[in-house]
Write a structure and sequence with these properties.
297 residues; mainly alpha; 14 helices; 74% helix
């Protein structure tokens, strides 16, 4: 009963994370009109790390092995610095509709790595069907079948986005094993990832001459809320869920993020949701339910 309850708690954590991160699409819209994406991302990650400090005061980071320190740095660099940087560079060189499809590669690569490298897999055919349902549903929900003719053409931007999803996939898998094998908790890992990733992004922004600190002071409350809620605590809840229910289940539930992003946008802006997106949501939910019954932790 305790184990089963733990799984439900893990699912709840990831569901909360997907809702929080889903709000980022709406919350970031106004700041991006005045701040370039690299400057905003570096500020958001740094602020989110600071906002997570209260969660680790009673459980300071204790690293006794050099191997753990190296792994911690690799996780932070992959997930909170290299991947976002590749994504932003890719977005500048490709169509937004292409990017919406390619970004879902994180789920595919995460599942592949979990299977090939860590043995987190089920031989049940329903597992493959459920993952296909989720990926197809994501493609429908995020593009509404408005696909450009350049998706399957070689474009540096598309390649950069795919590389970003590979980095996040590796980060997801390594983080899961790191949380299981060390005394470092999700809160400490989330804080370190945010602070180190934000510092690297800030350095990259300055070195590329794209740091622009001149923007309306009225945006600060929204930026802080975006950093703390949609990034900092979303990452914390994601890692908590990752530790409890495993990599593949976590990614399946987290795939609801764009759905929540669409719903929040509809509520805030009054825009409409298409029938295709409703059908896609049903496909994703069905796939999540199916995979939760087939994959072993």
């Amino acid at each position: 009963m305790i184990i089963k309850l733990g799984k439900y708690v893990g699912l709840f954590y990831v569901l909360c994370a997907s809702i929080m991160f889903g709000s980022a699409f709406t919350l970031a819209k106004e700041p991006l009109r005045s701040i370039n994406s690299l400057t905003l991302s570096s500020l958001v990650y740094l602020i989110s790390g600071v906002c997570l400090l209260p969660t680790v005061i009673r459980s300071p980071i204790r690293i006794s092995r050099k191997k753990d320190f190296v792994t911690l740095v690799i996780i932070a660099v992959l997930g909170a610095a290299v991947a976002p940087l590749l994504l932003f560079l890719g977005l500048e060189q490709t169509e937004s509709t292409d990017a919406a499809i390619l970004i879902n590669g994180e789920i595919i690569f995460t599942v592949i790595f979990a299977w090939l490298l860590f043995g987190e897999w089920s031989k049940d055919a329903r597992t493959i069907i459920s993952i296909i349902l989720v990926v197809v549903g994501l493609g429908l929900a995020t593009t509404d079948l408005r696909i450009s003719g350049t998706l399957f053409q070689y474009k540096p931007g598309n390649l950069l986005i795919l590389l970003a999803t590979v980095c996040w996939a590796l980060d997801n898998n390594i983080s899961r094993r790191f949380l299981q094998s060390t005394n470092i908790g999700p809160a400490s890992l989330a804080m370190v990832k945010s602070l180190l990733g934000g510092s690297i992004l800030l350095a990259a922004t300055v070195l590329t001459g794209r740091f622009d600190f001149v923007f309306p002071i009225s945006l600060w409350p929204q930026i802080v809320f975006l950093a703390a809620f949609a990034f900092g605590y979303a990452l914390l809840f994601f890692l908590k869920g990752l530790k409890k229910i495993g990599t593949v289940k976590t990614m399946m539930v987290f795939s609801l993020t764009p759905i929540f992003g669409i719903i929040i946008t509809v509520v805030v802006t009054g825009s409409s949701i298409s029938y295709l997106q409703i059908i896609a949501t049903g496909m994703i939910i069905f796939g999540i339910v199916l995979v939760s019954k087939t994959i072993k932790d």
